[in-house]
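Help needed: design a sequence for this.
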């Protein structure tokens, strides 16, 4: 191996400074968001394997086939044989034994392993034992580690707990684990002194371990107690930093001054609406009015409301206030579909009120785009609705008074920073359709004022929800057909998965996961075999916007009756004639996400249904889906979700890979807070942050220097 220049490795060194990591490999690390050694160190394991307790072959034979994972200490007995079964399928196979018996071991598509298993060498194998051909005991693609020199032969010198990292195809678990390990060795040599961001007094008060210990142990825990302590400490730190960033942002926003506005004649606006506003909508609008006209600092408010609660018209009221004050206003949505929908909803209303509105999205023709930009710059265009196209540097407003963002959490951090810069002293309103429990909301949105639409407009009917398994497939297809033949549209949603992104946990993940209804293949099957006579459309996240747009339009127009899709339709899409939502592999979605999906139907006059298909056995999955069947209110669903899964899931990425960070105005990825399963712990981190800020608002004290540095490293882009 070519020797790398010996450089002093630092936290900011690129991963390619490590031996064995080429530029090409570096690119794979990049895909995981890992650029530097510091990133490697905070690439915390997503799970652990407890390999410490070993069994003999005889013991393993007793439990074979039951799906339990075991560790075996085995000696290689036969030379590994590599055979090609068919194109793209290579087996490496050998027999290994202990004093009580032997096991046939097979690896798929890793021919290079032949050299790792010399006859007579001893390894720890970890995975499931099955009965193979002729009743032979077999292990398929088990985890493996050679016994280190000096091991007494029982594997006791090997780590008992092995980390599993989030990885990507092309980057093996071993490579990633080694890289993390080397980064740890480089940045955390045994005698190094690291300043701890958490003040000592706080550590003592909360019973937390120091940072150096925690970082070491989160990657290489010697036992479960050490792992627990490490995890607790790191979660606390992450939550504390997050809470501090919110509090500081709030203080910053309160220190700004907005241009004073007056309260316009709202009745003129209300008179244009075809319905009476609900009490919740009125309260929200009153709050906007107060924020915009009766305070020195700009409005900085979150409008949260379940699907269908009528957020759009509230947003329109805020836009109206700004426009009546002679300002321009903008509204930004995360997707073109949503932006267009807002535009279709709002432009007629504002036309009547005397304000022109333009749509600015990626697909807008260049000529029209530059016209819109010119007119925003010279102030002749009062209102614009668009996507992040609005954030481009050459979009300049003559005098913008209000920016509204819909589903802001779906924008990236850099986009949010661009927005914050553009809208510095401007009133801002953030809309979110993700109901989250009140207790969490008060903490997670601590930098914002909050209005909640907790009341649906009258006359809404409940969407009947059922959870079914595969045995209902025929009946379900019959039901889909019935709805479609009656001229109603049907959504069929499959989890979006990037196959091959995650290395499975040996012996566990692969077998316990039910077969995914891979959206592409499923759409084809439905259109060719099941409903050959019905128009079926297909929508997925990787399509070009124009394609998506076209499909969505045809679906909304009723030209397509069945739409198979990944969750790109998730938020805000409005097709009032759709009456049936089918969710495949429903267990892969968060409860709140399922609730969102359900909100796509029942938007018109016709009775609507939501069918959750899941073959996942197990109490937890069933219980979760049951909550949805029984509860129509999104906030209640979220409360139950919180009880069942803990707050961590509100920071987490969905197991199906669909990220639904609830931290609406953060656009953040949490490294470890998603393991927090205790609301009380979360509360403590937030009150610790409040205590720190109360004593030292700008973190200027000596004892907060390391804390301040950590905070800037983590949330600087958002605070500064
Ligand atoms: P969401 O909060 O999900 O964005 P929308 O703003 O899209 O909800 O509103 C959903 C539907 O309810 C729209 O068709 C809207 O016109 C209608 N709506 C909103 N407010 C009321 C109300 N107070 N009474 C009756 N219908 C309303
Ligand atoms: Mg909406």
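Sure. Designed sequence:
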């Amino acid at each position: 191996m070519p020797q790398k220049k010996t450089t002093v490795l630092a936290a900011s060194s690129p991963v390619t400074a490590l031996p064995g990591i080429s530029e090409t490999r570096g690119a794979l690390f990049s895909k995981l968001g890992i650029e530097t050694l510091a990133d490697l160190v905070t690439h915390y394991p997503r799970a652990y394997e407890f390999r410490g307790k070993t069994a003999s072959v005889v013991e393993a034979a007793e439990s074979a086939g039951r799906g339990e994972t075991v560790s075996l200490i085995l000696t290689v007995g036969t030379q590994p044989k590599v055979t090609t079964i068919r194109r793209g399928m290579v087996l490496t196979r050998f027999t290994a034994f202990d004093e009580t018996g032997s096991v046939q071991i097979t690896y798929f598509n890793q021919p290079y392993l032949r050299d790792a298993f010399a006859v007579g060498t001893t390894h720890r194998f970890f995975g499931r034992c099955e009965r193979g051909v002729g009743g032979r005991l077999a292990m398929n693609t088990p985890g493996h580690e050679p016994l280190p020199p000096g091991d007494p032969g029982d594997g006791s010198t090997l780590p008992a707990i092995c980390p599993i990292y989030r990885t990507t195809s092309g980057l093996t678990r071993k490579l990633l684990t080694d890289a993390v390990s080397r980064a740890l060795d480089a940045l955390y040599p045994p005698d190094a002194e690291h300043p701890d961001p958490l003040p000592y007094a706080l550590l003592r008060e909360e019973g937390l371990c120091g940072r150096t210990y925690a970082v070491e142990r989160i990657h290489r825990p010697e036992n479960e107690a050490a792992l627990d302590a490490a995890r607790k400490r790191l979660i606390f730190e992450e939550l504390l930093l997050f809470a501090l960033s919110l509090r500081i942002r709030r203080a910053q926003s309160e220190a700004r001054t907005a241009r004073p506005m007056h309260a316009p004649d709202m009745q003129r606006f209300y008179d244009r609406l075809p319905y009476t506003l609900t009490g919740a909508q009125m309260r929200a609008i009153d709050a906007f009015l107060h924020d915009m006209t009766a305070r020195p600092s700009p409005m900085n408010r979150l409008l949260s409301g379940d699907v269908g609660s009528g957020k759009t018209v509230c947003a329109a009221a805020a836009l109206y206030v700004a426009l009546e004050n002679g300002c321009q206003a903008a509204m930004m949505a995360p997707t073109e579909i949503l932006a267009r929908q807002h535009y279709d909803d709002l432009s007629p209303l504002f036309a009547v009120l005397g304000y022109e509105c333009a749509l600015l999205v990626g697909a807008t023709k260049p000529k029209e785009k530059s016209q819109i930009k010119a007119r925003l710059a010279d102030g002749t265009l009062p209102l614009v609705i668009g996507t992040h196209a609005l954030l481009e540097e050459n979009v300049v407003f003559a005098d913008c008074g209000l920016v509204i963002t819909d589903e802001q959490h779906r924008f990236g951090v850099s986009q949010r920073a661009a927005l914050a810069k553009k809208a510095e002293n401007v009133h801002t309103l953030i809309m979110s359709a993700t109901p989250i429990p009140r207790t969490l909301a008060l903490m997670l949105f601590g930098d914002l004022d909050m209005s909640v639409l907790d009341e649906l407009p009258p006359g809404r009917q409940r969407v009947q929800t059922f959870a079914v398994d595969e045995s209902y497939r025929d009946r379900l297809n019959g039901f889909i057909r019935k709805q479609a033949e009656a001229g109603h549209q049907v959504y069929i949603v499959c989890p979006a998965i990037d196959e091959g992104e995650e290395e499975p946990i040996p012996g566990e993940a692969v077998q316990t996961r039910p077969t995914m209804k891979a959206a592409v293949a499923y759409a084809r099957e439905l259109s060719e075999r099941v409903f050959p006579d019905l128009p079926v459309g297909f929508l997925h996240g990787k399509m070009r916007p124009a394609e998506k747009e076209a499909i969505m339009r045809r679906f909304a127009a009723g030209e397509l009756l069945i739409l198979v899709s990944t969750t790109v339709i998730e938020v805000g899409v409005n097709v009032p004639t759709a009456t049936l939502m089918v969710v495949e592999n429903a267990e892969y979605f968060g409860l709140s996400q399922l609730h969102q999906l359900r909100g796509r139907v029942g938007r018109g006059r016709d009775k609507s249904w939501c069918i959750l298909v899941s073959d996942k056995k197990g109490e937890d999955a069933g219980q979760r889906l049951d909550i949805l069947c029984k509860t129509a209110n999104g906030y209640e669903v979220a409360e139950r979700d919180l009880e069942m899964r803990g707050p961590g899931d509100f920071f987490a990425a969905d197991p199906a890979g669909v990220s639904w960070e609830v931290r609406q105005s953060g656009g953040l990825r949490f490294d470890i807070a998603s393991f927090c399963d205790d609301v009380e712990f979360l509360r403590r981190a937030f009150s610790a942050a409040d205590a720190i800020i109360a004593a030292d608002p700008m973190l200027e004290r000596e004892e907060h220097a390391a804390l301040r540095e950590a905070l800037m490293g983590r949330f600087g882009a958002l605070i500064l």
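The chain has 23 helices and 23 strands.
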